[in-house]
Amino acid sequence: MPTPNRWFIAAAAVVMQMALGAVYAWSVFRAPLTSAYGWTISEVTFAFTIAIFVLGFAAFAGGEWMRRVGPRRVALAAGLLYGLGVFLTSLSADRLWVLYGAYGLLAGTGLGLGYIVPVATLVKWFPDRRGTLTGIAVGGFGAGALITAPIATRLISQVGTMPTFAILGAVYFVAVTGGALFMRNPPAGYVPPGWTPTASQQQQRASRPFTLREAVGCWQWYGLWALLFLNVTAGIAIISQAAPMAQEMTGVSAVSAAGIVGIMSIANGLGRFLWASLSDVIGRRQVFLLMFPLQAVVFVLFPTVGSAPAFTIMACVILLCYGGGFGTMPAFVADYFGAEHVGSIYGLMLTAWGCAGVFGPMLIATLREANGRYNEALVVIAAVMLVATAIPMLVGAPLPPQARSAPVAGGVGA
User: Fold this and answer.
1) I need a labelling partner for 321 at 20 to 30 A (CA). Which of 135, 215, 230, 331 fits?
2) In the chain, what's the furthest Cα-to-Cα distance?
3) Closest Cα to residue 84, out of 63, 49, 108, 60?
4) 348-387: per-residue pLDDT in tens?
5) DSSP E strand boundaries for 280-342
6) What's the predicted TM-score (pTM) here?
7) What letters, b where the CB count within 10 A reaches 16 and e where it falls short, cover 92-119?
8) Domains of the chain by range and CATH?
9) Distance between CA atoms of residues 119 and 137, nearest Å
């Protein structure tokens, strides 16, 4: 069988991720659902929280499943579950448990299965530019809300909230399963035409890749988990409160605040590509060494803003870094543990996303309620970012599995 054009696979990955990233447009449903069915803001938001939490654990399951059956079957299952979950959400009128089950559990499972497939597949097809290509793919996830939010808003006004879920569910099913048909692993020993690995890259390719068990036996895996958790905590805290924060801190209208949220989604998508591309040049650790202190400075300055432009700039810097963590981390994991089992290794690491998706919004909301303003919460997050800077300084590459298991000279068995 001839080797397919890897750029077609990359394009299909972006389409899949854009459909999956529509989950970030959930906020456009908040007001229609609360006004139509009397649900509280917290009750409606909890559906999104469930979906993000489930995503992290489903990504791990998807990574393990990929290892046995390949990426296409997992991606097809993701399209079915995600599309069906959103479609069945159209039956949740006056039934909150259906909303949680369909959108939170079913669609969230599809999200996790689908998210890991393009990431784990592209790091194998693009060993020459891992950061750039995974950044492009997950950049599609970040940009999904930018396309979906205005479309969903218009559909809600024209056909109603519940029919909108049905329409979007069908569209998501077609987009994800269509992209899934292109997903496949490269041939064993694949090297891109015309690419000659550097000495360090060749050494890494020659080393036996880590299995999942070996990877989680390294403290470096937990260091990378912590990097992702802390970076997501900061960004998703802002995402969860962006519109009311903008109104409270700058006095803008709800319409203007929604516009700021849209600009932030662009920054989220761009950050995934820009930081990941930079990581191909300066290294993955150096990217986090730049992002954490940068966010610490921005969070410290955030309480001083009084204008919409200043708020937008600072929020976009944070969202650039938020996206940058997702864009850089898959390549980081592949660099340290090899690409062969990256689906399960990085899939398990995405539980950090699920945990931060609960912790970040709860942290900022709790501190806002306790203090009556956002200032204290922003300073606390700044301190967390400053402390987090120490982690990439400490997390060096683990020893290859064969070196870690080799007997020590002069010891038992020598």
Assistant:
1) 215
2) 78
3) 108
4) 998 998 899 888 888 888 888 788 888 999 999 999 999 9
5) none
6) 0.80
7) beeeeeebbbbbbbbbbbbbbbbbbbbb
8) 1-186 (1.20.1250.20), 212-395 (1.20.1250.20)
9) 7
